[in-house]
């Protein structure tokens, strides 16, 4: 994507998430990504639609979920600033536990913003938004350089899958999140279509292996081993500290929830 002459365009299929940055684009450009397709629009008088009807929106969200409206909402630019409006009866969850209700609008701040749409006790769908920040006037800055990816911790596919299930309440931006229990993680993963048998013991072993490995090395995570003097309840606190470190390093991002597919239903105690 070239900055000069930037025009509205479909994002390449290889772009799986916006959490780690976006390609070079003019300040004020918005990138929007759903589960099937994404779009980028430069600042101007544009309306970007998102919802269930893939043939009638720019960014499909929850295409197989009848609870999501065909045209659930829009992203609009007045020529300078982007905003999001909810045109459906189902709320849109914004960062900071804020709910965007029917007919309400909110300014989309520069940078990365994950939004979730879904009904209570059912799957919620991720809509990723990234608004390119304004350039600075410092001639020595790196405004035109490629965005550097964050220094993430290395995880295998199975480790990433298990930790995503363990941390899903954090990734869904729930109020006062806590790690899921081993039984909950195993039950959720056993609903996946790969037919692999997950047990609480297997899940526990994978997480314990990750904690032990990431507690040492050039960038060790503290507070994830019993030896670190963590009080009761030990397991919950260790996992909480691990999840927080993985979130801060962008090792886990909301887009990871797509790894869980359609297997995850919200727990009854989740806030919506």
Low confidence ranges: 136-144, 262-272
Number of strands: 12
Strand order of the largest sheet: 1-3-2-12-11-8-9
Number of helices: 5
> Which value, in Å, is the CA radius of gyration?
20 Å
In angstroms, what separates the terminal alpha carbons? 38 Å
Q: How many strands, which pairing sense, and closed or not: the largest β-sheet? A: 7 strands, antiparallel
SSE topology string: EEEEEEEEEEEEHHHHH
**How confident is the prediction overall: mean pLDDT?**
84
Shape descriptor:
globular
Class derived from helix and strand content: alpha+beta
As a percent range, the share of strand residues is: 15-25%
What portion of residues is helical? 10-25%
Note down, in words, how this protein is organized.
The protein has 272 residues and is α+β, with helices and mostly antiparallel strands. Helix content is 19%, strand content 18%. It has helices at residues 157-166, 168-171, 182-189, 200-214, 234-248, and strands at residues 9-10, 30-33, 38-41, 47-51, 59-60, 73-77, 82-86, 92-93, 99-100, 105-107, 111-118, 124-131. The strands form 2 sheets. Strands 1-3-2-12-11-8-9 form a 7-stranded antiparallel β-sheet, with no helix packed on it. A 5-stranded mixed β-sheet has the order 5-4-6-7-10, with no helix packed on it. Residues 136-144 and 262-272 have low confidence and may be disordered.
